[in-house]
TrEMBL record:
The lineage of its organism: Bacteria, Pseudomonadati, Pseudomonadota, Betaproteobacteria, Nitrosomonadales. Coiled coil: none annotated. Transmembrane segments: none annotated. PROSITE patterns: VOC. Residues 5-120 form the VOC domain. One of its GO terms (molecular function) is lyase activity. This is Catechol 2,3-dioxygenase-like lactoylglutathione lyase family enzyme.
Length: 137
């Protein structure tokens, strides 16, 4: 057996609409088909692939479910993403890794899951609102 790729991540949320607003409105995923499960949630897509499953209607665990630190997505249009994060007052950290040919932007979803967005290093350096850059968690 060999792993052939990543299928999806699942996040738990205390507020389904707020969580969807972040991943759809801010990060640009789209909501698509989800089987008729007996619990609330959403499947979010990049193109025709459901890459993020959201589960609502459960209590968030008091203790960690494991050791996953963050989820990472390949992204484009760094300035647009920075502008959206600033518009929604979402704190972030941005690093340019020239040797890796990438920009790394880190932020948190509404329930605290850490999200990494990777952009090509060739994208221009974005104009930042210095007062908002940095984690507030």
């Amino acid at each position: 057996m060999a792993i052939e790729g990543m299928n999806h991540f699942t996040v738990l949320t205390s507020d389904l609409e707020k969580c969807k607003a972040f991943y759809i409105g801010v990060l640009g995923l789209t909501e698509g088909y989800r089987p008729p499960f007996l619990f609330p949630g959403a499947w979010l897509y990049s193109g025709d692939q459901a890459i993020l499953h959201i589960i609502a209607g459960r209590s968030l665990p008091a203790e960690s479910q494991g050791i996953i630190d963050h989820m990472a997505f390949t992204a484009s249009n760094l300035q647009l993403v920075v502008d959206k994060l600033n518009f929604y007052n979402i704190a972030f950290k941005l690093h340019r890794l020239i040797e890796q040919q990438t920009w790394q932007l880190f932020c948190h979803d509404p329930d605290g899951a850490k999200v990494e967005l990777d952009f090509a290093a060739s994208e221009p350096e974005p104009k930042l609102d210095i007062a908002r850059e940095g984690f507030n968690k």
